[in-house]
Design goal:
Elements: E1 24-35, H1 36-50, E2 58-61, E3 70-79, H2 80-87, E4 93-98, E5 101-106, H3 109-125, E6 126-131, E7 146-155, E8 158-163, H4 165-168, E9 177-181, E10 189-195, E11 201-205, E12 228-233, E13 242-251, E14 255-259, E15 270-273, E16 279-288, H5 293-299, E17 310-315, E18 325-327, H6 330-355, H7 367-370, H8 374-392, H9 396-413, H10 420-425, H11 447-467
Parallel strand pairs: 2-5
Antiparallel strand pairs: 1-3, 4-5, 6-7, 6-9, 7-8, 8-11, 10-11, 10-18, 12-13, 12-15, 13-14, 14-17, 15-16, 16-17
Length: about 475
Amino acid sequence: MKFKYLLLLPLLSSLAFSLNMQKQYFESLQLENLSLVEAVDRINTIHSSQNRGKYEFKILLDDPVNMNDQVSLTLNNVSLDLLMNTLLSGTKYNYIISSNFLIIQNGNDQFVKENMSLDLNTRDSVCLIEVTPNVDAELGISGYGSSGSGFLCEINGIKFLVTNIHVIADANSISDIAVMTRDNIKVKLTKGFIAQDRDLCIFRHEEDSRFKYLKISKDISDSQKNDPIYLLGYPLGGGVLIKTDGVLNGLGASLIDINCSAFPGNSGGPVIDSISDEVIGLVTKLDRINNDTFTQLAREKLGNPFNDDLRIFATRIDTVSSESWVPLDWYDWKDHKVIMYKHTKALLAFNSLVSSNYKPGTLISNEDDLVRDPDLWRAYKKCANDYDVAITKKDYTRANAVLKSFMVSIEISFRPNSGIRWKQLQKPLRYEWYLSSKSGNIDFWVRDNIQKYYRELHNEWKLMMERWEVN
């Protein structure tokens, strides 16, 4: 259960926790001849109902199947300290505290020792990942770096390093990625695999007897909702491993929603069930909740699941199908990246023309984006120069021809389906990561989005042509 198992009952009164053990949570509480499982369920239900579905604390059982001791109690002005001491009086159990959870466990010392050892192994499994891509003119990369988290685990008996695709996405080769354990042991990656349907990748690596491996949960279910979880990772750089506690909010087909503290750098780090110490996912993305009028009104309703302004998502590993995995070929990976990079720059350049409300023969103010696409920049400069010359000579027929040639050429180039830019973008790509956000890509620049904005800007450009009577 992690270091929380060190917090045995005799120490509880001397330590400070997030829970107020002396607060009176119930005016009265009566339980008669219930099993411990039934008693805990009754207490949680009463507390939840009197707090309109929310809870300030929750009692969990470490081994509910085998915790059948009969309990009875009648109490008034009930604090958590009074409740837990009375509830467990005469039993073989004690409890520990993790965030807002009180976890009842077997008082066996050997059990505690085993989990203390497991805590050390868990932390030694989590790795710092630093990506420093080589300078590459095609991608405009000048050697900048980034960092994230990952962890060592076994999947179907095979040992892997697991992380998010976006953590290693800037790399152009395996040599661009440095992976270190907390004890500064280098993890030498070999072959990589990319999941096609989510932000997840795994790497084989050279084995080392010092490595420790986490276990992946094979049975995540809705019954675990509101269970305690914790994260391990390297937030905000610095190379320091940090643990944060939280709660599992809900499950999706490929993502889970967690309520905890996470930051850039946590990406790729494991989300671990506090009861089983198994990995249920890896931290992937943070989404800010809109603050519009509708959302504000909805959040005022009872049972609102989004009390915070930030939602944190983790990627599931247990639901990945074997057909989803594709080997990571670095040549193809970089080729895809170059294609998206060039079209991203073309889109920015095209947008700068449209958003400037382009006037023939004039230089627009936002040339920083326009110059990103060499072909578009050259065509634009030629149009501006030729138009100025024609106007100087008062050759208005020539001026209109110059304008028409420029605007028609742009329309043809970006025309949906048949335009040159559009056809270039239709090149078959091996990795779904670059095709659609459904692949788990959290970046804006995927082919689906670029096509969407190409189409919108093309329509705007045609309206400009009509305004200037270019046909």
